[in-house]
Amino acid sequence: MLYDVVIIGGGIGGLMAAYRLHKNDPTLKVAVTERGNALEKRYCPAGEEKTCVHCKTCSITSGFAGAGAFSDGKFNLGTAYGGTLGEELGDTKATHYIDEVDKILNEYCTSGIPQVYRSNEELKLKCLQNNLRLLDMNVKHLGTDHNYVTMQNLIRAIAENGTDLFPFYDCTRVEKVEGGYRVHYANGEVLETTAIIIATGRGGANFVADFCRSFDVPMKSNHIDIGVRVEMKDIIWKEFSDKIYEPKILYKTKTFEDRCRMFCFNKGGLVSAENNHGIITANGHSYAEAEKKTDNCNFAILSSIRFTEPFNQPTEYAENISRLANMIGKGNVLVQRFGDLIRGRRTNEHRLSQNTVTPTLRATAGDISLVLPHRILTNIIETIYALDRVAPGTANDDTLLYGCESKYYSIRPVFKNDRFELVDNVYIIGDGSGICRGLSQSGAMGIYVADCITG
Predict the structure, then answer these.
(1) 3-state DSSP call for residue 73?
(2) Are residues 75 and 147 in contact, defined by beta-carbon separation less than 8 angstroms?
(3) pLDDT at 49 over 70
(4) Which residues fall within 8 angstroms of residue 440, CB to CB, at 6 or more apart?
(5) Most buried in the list 87, 221, 235, 345, measured by CB within 10 Å?
(6) DSSP track, 84-103
């Protein structure tokens, strides 16, 4: 089949690109291919079992609406964090496209007006007085449940506009042919197209690397973040979450002067497991509806690592640490009480059963100090004590640490121009580009590239 544009990846970046392409030029023939399932058919058994059952294709990370489908539905309404789109396009232009994402979400959110949390100077000052930096801006919170419905409505509108949506199309390679490209898939299908938008997300890092090598596109080595998912009683962070919803806090450690960050806060949320190509890692989400909330909150603490030459395999490094956690956890995420970690002992099922914080994910009780390198573990412990100064109780013995949580940003292609073009008529957007780390900027990047194609 011949298309004007083939979008590889059906996450929010790919969906926003498809939506805008039709809006700009309804005559375009567009296809969105996704290696996972249709959104309404995505199902995670861990919801019942509270533990990952190792599905061949993870419904949490793959499928239409992408990894963001079952996220907390947080949309950052600015450029202060969530990626570097502001640096690439300039804050004015980047903010314009983020606003465009917000307008589209409002159009398809049928669950009422989402709550917007405003910045708070008082909390910024409190953090600064304790050697912490609060990254604060306006955040729109849909919640996992309302975000799902919004994405469902958006996908339905895109399909009704005539865009072809193909689930279980796992792209294996792209071939240059006269007049355009052939896109090959693991199921044997081949699509021909004039232009391609690569929107594979963070999970498509290997595909992006293979494409860049095949087409001689230079790549930069980005940093990686490795750490833990932290869970505790929701009331401990209530002062922050009631006012700004999601505290994103940076801390420069004293021992190594490394940067650690607290992010992806889930008020009244649950810890979840993700299957990333056979590697089980921790994540978190929460719902907007009050009856679905828990007594806990959770967030990530990640230590940033930027490797220097000659080492050039940061993704593989992070994956191997996560594999080690899975090995010790018998194929599952590890969980440890903070008090046990500090005392140098593993958490066992007995101590876990006596814990005042009830785990929301059925993880394997163990010892994360056997997994995380000394430098990273030291950074995480320091950060927990630093956060305890602004939210007393964070460093309680019963605080739970789930390991590992990793974010890979290792593939950063060198763009041909400011249109995020890799080679002629092949563009890259979203987390897979090394630019974005969130829903808003990924969606904005999709709209921007669609405008470049049709402009």
Answers:
(1) coil
(2) no
(3) no
(4) 75, 76, 77, 82, 98, 101, 102
(5) 221
(6) SHHHHH-HHHHHHHHHHHHH
Q: What is the mean pLDDT of residues 316-321?
A: 90
Q: How many CA atoms lie within 13 A of 339 on its CB side?
A: 13
H helical segments located in 263-415: 314-328, 338-342, 349-353, 374-388
Q: Are 61 and 67 in contact (CB under 8 A)?
A: yes
Within 10 angstroms of residue 125's Cβ, the number of other Cβ atoms is 11
Sequential DSSP letters for 425-442: TEEE-SGGGTSB-SHHHH
- Burial-class residue 349 by CB neighbours within 10 Å (0-12, 13-18, 19+): exposed
Report how far apart, in Å, the C-alpha atoms of 175 and of each of 57, 65, 156 are: 25, 26, 30
Average pLDDT over residues 123-139: 91
pLDDT in tens, 202-237: 788 889 989 999 999 998 766 789 999 999 999 999
| Pairwise CA distance, residues 179 & 251, whole Å | 51
**Which tokens hold the place of 330?**
């018998």
Burial of 155 (0-12, 13-18, 19+ CB in 10 A): buried
List Cα–Cα distances, 242 to 53, 123, 266, in angstroms: 35, 11, 12
Is residue 114 within 8 Å of 141, Cβ to Cβ? yes
Residue position matching structure tokens 């081949």 = 190
User: Helix count (H) and strand count (E) of the chain?
Assistant: 13, 23
Instruction: Report the SS3 class of residue 289.
Output: coil
> Residue 435: what residue type?
I
Q: Which letter, b or e, does each residue of 307-341 get, where b requires 16 or more Cβ atoms within 10 Å of its Cβ?
A: eeeeeeebbebbbebbebbbebbeebbbbbbbbbb
Q: Answer for the pair 265, 247: CB distance below 8 angstroms, yes or no.
A: yes
- Give the Cα separation of 161 and 116 in Å (integer): 30
Q: Which of 26, 60, 430 is nearest to 281 (CA)?
A: 60
